[in-house]
Amino acid sequence: MISWRKHYKKTLIAIGLLLSTSASIYGQDGDPKNGEKLFKANCTACHALDKQVVGPPLKGVVERVKTEGGVDKDWLHKWIKNNKELRASGDKYANEIFEKYNKTEMQVFPNLSDKDIDDILAYTTNPPAPEPATTDAAKDTAAAGTANAAPQSSTTTNIVIISLLAIAGLLVWILLKLRQLVKLGQSEELSGLNETRVRSFREIYEKYHYVGKALLAILAILAAYGVWNWLMWIGVYKGYKPEQPIYFSHKIHAGEQKIDCQLCHSSAKYGKVSEIPSMNVCMNCHRTISEYNADHYMEPGKDKAFYDGEIQKIYAATGWDAQKQQYTGKTQPVEWTRIHNMPDFVYFNHAQHVVAGEQAIINSFNKKNPNNKIDVVCKACHGKIDTMNVVQMANDFTMGWCIECHRTTEVDMNNGYNKEYFKNLHEKLKKQYPKDGGKITVDAIGGIECGKCHY
Fold first, then answer.
1. Which of 15, 94, 317, 448 is least crowded, fewest Cβ atoms below 10 Å from its Cβ?
2. Signal peptide span per the entry (predicted)?
């Protein structure tokens, strides 16, 4: 009995050592959940678990470096904390990796503790299963409810249509019967009167020609007004939102991700036109963002596969090979559909409004729209574009619309440019335009002169 107990204890000790050794080999002696947070905060710009981005995929990296380079986790600690120092020491495997991945230097992470690195490696070895998304379940339930409701709605519609057709048939039958009764009840005297009735338009016109001329005159005026109104709205496309060759949601980029408008439309602040950003601007971010992972927001009717496919269109346009992480030189032009397009005879300078008029326009808009305030000057003309999945023309962009804005927007005389340029005209303008206690609007400084916009 004693001998058996001794062997039993030895067996337990051996199993414990084996398990601890195994855990150490496969990098699971850390906290995978905390490692996931650290991985997303520090690594996702250049790495993914299951595919190459800028650097190699990191799933199973502990076992891979052991197999390829014969190194252990201590080597990975040195590589992550300061790979430059490791390469400079002459480490063969470190320099092989550097050469293999186009001599792209990895960022150093001296701020990560040994425990942090162990947690990250534990995550790459055994990533925790994703938590069930309650929102997706709710979406599935709603979709199922909609699918069940669809046949019921269709049945109800059919019943209504059949009922209406039956009622219409009944009415026609009643009218026919009434007509027969009227014919049977007509006397000879009524038949004689019917023969004396006016039977042609000419006779009616001769009898009521004054009324006819008046009606024709009214119709002519209405027709002229209709033609004039139609002409005035040529080129006014408020609400126009065409489909683009690559789907780009401003709600995701400017709304959800809070990307500043001028990061992409940089020339709006310094040039006349806002310009369409080149595809290389998109690649500043999408070089490392190759798939859509923002599951918290998806437009109705679109899924992850749809968004991933649009990112692939960016790669095709720029000639980017995501696997090799390099440009192939084979580019494809993107034929964007223009939405906002001023006529050639209209001069409009974005920089003048975005820089000199920024605060004045924001203040004026918020004063006129207290329940719909804006925080960026772009929204005054283009609407709340950070809420649009598909960009649309938010305003009329007519001459009257511009003039109304110039007549109601107060000039910011504390603006450095205005303060210096109109230094000797302030008092004169206040006397000349005494409305609202001497406040100066854009029209007071030439904002409605023809030559300012037409040249």
1. 15
2. 1-25
Q: pLDDT tens digits for 45-54? A: 788 888 777 7
Radius of gyration over alpha carbons of the chain, in Å?
A: 38
Beta bridge partners of 441: 410
Domain ranges, ordered by start, for the chain: 2-125, 201-234, 250-327, 350-453
Residue for token pair 């960016």: 314
CB atoms within 10 A of CB 79: 23
Is the pTM higher than 0.90? The answer reads no
Contacts made by residues 448-453, CB under 8 angstroms, sequence distance 24+: 448/403, 448/406, 448/407, 452/347, 453/346, 453/347, 453/348, 453/402
- Pairing mode of beta strands 326-327, 320-321: antiparallel
Q: What is the pLDDT of residues 16-40, one digit of tens each?
A: 444 444 444 444 578 888 888 888 8
Q: Cα–Cα distances in Å, from 233 out to 383, 394, 398?
A: 20, 15, 9
Q: CA-based angle 447:449:451, to the nearest 5?
A: 115
- Would residue 436 be called left, alpha or beta, if left means φ above 0 and alpha means ψ between -120 and 50 degrees? left
CB 37 within 8 A of CB 48: no
Report d(CA 124, CA 49) in Å as an integer: 7
Q: What percent of the chain has pLDDT over 90?
A: 29
Domain 2-125 is in which class?
mainly alpha
Residues 410, 440 contacting (CB under 8 angstroms): yes
Distance between CA atoms of residues 395 and 116, nearest Å: 53
Give residue 441's identity as a one-letter amino acid code.
T
As averages over each run of 10 residues, the pLDDT of the chain (455 residues) reads 48 47 50 85 80 81 85 86 87 84 81 87 83 49 48 71 88 85 64 60 73 87 92 88 94 91 89 89 91 82 92 95 90 93 89 88 93 93 94 92 92 75 72 68 87 87
